[in-house]
């Protein structure tokens, strides 16, 4: 009888350890799921918002360079372009603080270089003079730089979509794994109940037989 009791206790102990190990794995899985969704928000959705804000600022710069609005007062155009560029660089600094992929870092570095150097306009005479009007050749060069900057933004936006899909796929795998572990836990609990029932039932029968 002592031998059976010992075996039953060992089985119960092993089952309890398995349940404990399963709970540890499940906690780790939930932490991973939480981390994944946090990454989707902070490094993908928020970044997509950054890209949109930068794109809007870049559009304003191009409008000012191209003199799209003939009724506009262009006396402060250089300052306005500079203010938009400073705002863009501020957003880029927040962008750089996120978890960048290698591709993102490349495109973001190229974009930052365009804003800091290629579109750094110090004199309005580069764009316009009273004698010649709009300097179309120089404006064309700036437009080409802006087009390249937009291509970098499009590539960055595409990366957000691709990386977001990867993270969501990872979250789905983790959730499916958690569901499997939940079923495993139910099976262990059933086995544990059966073992304890048989142990108690047999013990009760033996006690009755002794009486």
TrEMBL record:
Name of the protein: Chemotaxis methyl-accepting receptor HlyB-like 4HB MCP domain-containing protein
Keywords carried by this UniProt record: Membrane, Transmembrane, Transmembrane helix
Q: What is the lineage of its organism?
A: Bacteria, Pseudomonadati, Bacteroidota, Cytophagia, Cytophagales
Q: Which domain of life is it from?
A: Bacteria
Q: Which InterPro entries match?
A: HlyB_4HB_MCP
Give TM regions: 180-201
What organism, scientifically named, is this protein from?
Algoriphagus lacus
Per the record's keyword annotation, is Transmembrane helix included, yes or no? yes
Limits of the Chemotaxis methyl-accepting receptor HlyB-like 4HB MCP domain: 3-167
